[in-house]
Amino acid sequence: MLITKPPMGWNSWNTFGENINEQVVRETAEAMVSKGLRDAGYEYVVIDDCWALNDRDENGRMVADPEKFPSGMRALADYIHSLGMKFGMYSCAGMRTCAGYPASFDREFIDAQTFADWGVDYLKYDFCFFPHDRNPMIYYNKMSMALKATGRDIVFSACNWGTHEVEKWVRSTGAHLWRSTGDIGERFTSVRDISASQFGKWRYGAPGCYNDMDMLICGMDGIGNVGHPGLCGDTEYKTHFAMWCMANSPLMIGCDVRRMRPETVELLTNRDLLRIDQDEECRAPIVVTTRGELAPTMFKHLSDREFAIGFFNFGDDEGDPDLRTWDIGFPTTAGFGLKLREVFSGETVDYTDDYFEVKLAPHDCKIYLGSYVPKA
């Protein structure tokens, strides 16, 4: 199964953690439809950790907690499918999940079949309590093979947090996306540090297997499992989402969609940013830091001879990132210039072929879509 674009959807962990249940999942899926998120491409509804009982049944199968999920996982999957969406679940390559529930170490084939029988379309596969004397590549490949053996198409989301040089082997395991970072929190420092850590890893992503920079914190507004009141606002959410799109990261919403503000909906359904994230060529951006690591400029090739340019200010003071076209291999003698349109404000630059600077407030960004135009 070839996944031709980074997956988009929602995951329960950032907001709900262990407080997940059937009602929340159903209401979230309904809200994704009513708010236009499904139609914008957010198709996966994924339950993270804490969904199971502590013990397997007499046949060795995992059991969904009947108090949290009284109708059962198959019925919940059927409901998600009836809304035109896809259903995702969680397990772990180790002896236990990160929250201490049954995991899939040496139980890969029975667990994969259980998920397939329930109608699962997406599996997030974590890395807690993994034995130190075992090879993670072998065990991620083992689950990949188990999923294929079910005969059902299931997206395989490998989540070992970027450890064990995963970028060098994960594509070989058949994974469709792989966590290239540690866990995100609702702090701008988390967004900044994750972004900086990925500058040398984006080149490993390509159609079929995508670098996953972790779930989105946009719209959490200080509420939930990884929420931090007062540390992020709409400017920080804007920069966070723009960076994930420039990086071709999977886009998994982490806030409570049912309470999502219109401003967050507008951001997450921005057609220009989604066009950048979902571009069929999945090119890594060229990163230029002539203004320092806190003010990077990114140039990204897109299909149809278009491109995107991102200016970011990760600093706490006003910043002035710039583009010096020769730094991306575009000399002033080329006979062409760049025509640009900023995706948030709509401002345009009719022609530039040498130097372009922007002024940015703390934590802000500007993202331009562009094309080539001949020199007058």
Alpha plus pi helix count: 10
CATH class of the largest domain: Alpha Beta
How many domains, as an integer?
A: 2
- The Cα radius of gyration reads 21 Å
Mean pLDDT: 96
**What portion of residues belong to β-strands?**
15-25%
- Topology as H/E string? EHHHEHEHEHEEHEHEHHEEEEEEEE
List segments where confidence is low: pLDDT < 50 over at least 5 consecutive residues: none
**Class per helix and strand makeup:** alpha/beta
Distance between the termini: 48 Å
Q: How many strands appear in the DSSP assignment?
A: 16
Fraction of residues in helix:
10-25%
Sum up the overall morphology in one term: globular
Describe the secondary structure blueprint for this structure:
Layout: E1 8-11, H1 13-16, H2 22-34, H3 37-40, E2 44-46, H4 73-82, E3 86-92, H5 108-117, E4 122-126, H6 136-149, E5 155-158, E6 177-179, H7 188-197, E7 210-212, H8 234-246, E8 251-253, H9 262-268, H10 271-277, E9 286-288, E10 297-301, E11 307-312, E12 322-324, E13 336-342, E14 348-352, E15 355-357, E16 365-374
Parallel strand pairs: 1-2, 1-8, 2-3, 3-4, 4-5, 5-6, 6-7
Antiparallel strand pairs: 9-10, 10-11, 11-16, 12-15, 13-14, 13-16
